Structures are given as structure tokens and as C-alpha cells.
């Protein structure tokens, strides 16, 4: 029984790290939206299934699935760089924050490894889910699909860099 208790204690830690990763991911979209010129009054984080950053158009709040979502963003900033950054913002902030925490908490190896593992599992889930949904539907789906539609080269380079940083952090911890 004493061997089971430490394992059971991991469950709330994993769920907590997972929830925090999702919140930070959506916060990245929000912050990059602000950076791109979208007023705070026109951005809203919706935490649910799925979680997303809604954009306001008039009195309506739009989800990324709404056909008016991209045109609404582009009214604030028509730059493809701003659009790509807004979509990639979740991955960028979440990866940056988890890497910072790994550096800060590297003395607590198991905690740092657990945080990096949970965050990286969520990152991989996003990548796979977006790829599968895009393949099945025949249209770009999710953050990765939208990033790819805006700039395939930037997406390939950006995702490769983020994956490489995560692998380097893992190797550092091991």
C-alpha cells in the first residue's frame, strides 16, 4: 500500500500541470493577440472543451471554427506575421514557460521532469490531433493547421525549434 500512495499523489499533480499548460497555452494566444493589435475588449479566453480564445465581432463572440474568425482578426492586423504569431502564441508561451520552469526547478528533478513530460504530452496531442483532423476533413484544422495555412515554412521551422528545445530540456534533466 505504501508504494501506491506516491503514485496516487501523482494524479492531482499531473492534472494540475495539464490544466496549467492549457491555461498558459490559451494565454499565449491572448497575449500575442494583444501584441498584434487586437484590443483586450475584443479577446476572451474560453476554457472548456475545446479551450480557445474568442474574438468579438460586434456583439458576437467567435470561435476559431467560425468562418468570420480569421477575417475578424485580419481587420485588426492584416499582417501574415501577426496572424501566424497569434495562432502560434499558445505553443510559444507554453513552451517558453515550461522551459523556464525546468531551469528554475532542475534541482527538483522529478518535478521538473513531470512538468516537462505533461507539457510535452499535451504539445504532441495538439500536433497529432490537428494533423489527424486536417487529414480527415481535408481542411486545415486547429493551431497547427492554421499556422501551416498561413506559412508552411515558418510552421515547419517553428515546430521543429519548439520540439528541439523540449528534447534538449529532457536530455538536460536526464
Descriptive overview:
The chain is mainly alpha-helical. The chain has one domain. 72% of the residues lie in helices and 7% in strands. It has helices spanning 4-35, 69-76, 80-104, 109-137, 142-150, 152-173, and strands spanning 43-46, 52-57, 60-62. A three-stranded antiparallel sheet has the order 1-2-3. A hairpin with a 2-residue loop joins strand 2 (52-57) and strand 3. Helix 1 (4-35) runs antiparallel to helix 3 (80-104) and helix 3 (80-104) runs parallel beside helix 6 (152-173). The mean pLDDT is 92.
Question: How are the SSEs placed, and which strands pair?
Answer:
Elements: H1 4-35, E1 43-46, E2 52-57, E3 60-62, H2 69-76, H3 80-104, H4 109-137, H5 142-150, H6 152-173
Antiparallel strand pairs: 1-2, 2-3
Helix pairs in contact: 1-3, 1-4, 3-4, 3-5, 3-6, 4-5, 4-6, 5-6
Decide which structural class fits the backbone. Answer: mainly alpha
The tally of beta strands, per DSSP, is 3
Question: What percentage of residues falls in helices of 4 or more residues?
Answer: over 70%
Q: Regions with pLDDT < 50 over 5+ consecutive residues?
A: none
Supply the number of structural domains: 1
What is the tally of helical segments? Answer: 6
Write down the Rg: 17 Å
Strand content: 5-15%
Series of secondary-structure elements, N-terminal to C-terminal: HEEEHHHHH
Strand order within the widest sheet?
A: 1-2-3
The CA-CA distance between the termini, in Å, is 28 Å
Based on CA inertia axes, which overall geometry fits?
globular
Average pLDDT score: 92
**Oligomer class:** single chain
Strand count, sense and barrel status of the largest sheet are: 3 strands, antiparallel
Amino acid at each position: 500500500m505504501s508504494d501506491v500512495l506516491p503514485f496516487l499523489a501523482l494524479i492531482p499533480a499531473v492534472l494540475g500541470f495539464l490544466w496549467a499548460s492549457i491555461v498558459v497555452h490559451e494565454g499565449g494566444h491572448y497575449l500575442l493577440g494583444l501584441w498584434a493589435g487586437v484590443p483586450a475588449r475584443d479577446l476572451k479566453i474560453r476554457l472548456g472543451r475545446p479551450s480557445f480564445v474568442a474574438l468579438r465581432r460586434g456583439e458576437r463572440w467567435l470561435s476559431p471554427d467560425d468562418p468570420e474568425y480569421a477575417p475578424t482578426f485580419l481587420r485588426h492586423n492584416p499582417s501574415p506575421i501577426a496572424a501566424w504569431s497569434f495562432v502560434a502564441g499558445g505553443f510559444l508561451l507554453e513552451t517558453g514557460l515550461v522551459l523556464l520552469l525546468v531551469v528554475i526547478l532542475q534541482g527538483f528533478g522529478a518535478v521538473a521532469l513531470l512538468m516537462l513530460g505533461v507539457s510535452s504530452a499535451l504539445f504532441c496531442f495538439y500536433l497529432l490531433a490537428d494533423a489527424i483532423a486536417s487529414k480527415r476533413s481535408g481542411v486545415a484544422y486547429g493551431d497547427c493547421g492554421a499556422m501551416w495555412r498561413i506559412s508552411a515554412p515558418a510552421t515547419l521551422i517553428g515546430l521543429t525549434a519548439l520540439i528541439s528545445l523540449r528534447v534538449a530540456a529532457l536530455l538536460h534533466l536526464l
